[in-house]
Amino acid sequence: MRCHYCEREAAYAAETDNIKVGLCSEHFRDRLAELSDSDDLSALREQLDVTRTER
Fold it and tell me: Cα dihedral angle (4, 5, 11, 15), rounded to 10 degrees?
């Protein structure tokens, strides 16, 4: 699978409603940085019920 934004090999893939989108490491980091600057990340955390555990 190739990255949605460029022709590099996808390192990560997301799927919803039988649609898969791949992202290379660089574009994954870019999208994650964009999400961290928006309210969408907190909504995603709530949806996924993300909790942090101490090691």
Answer: -30
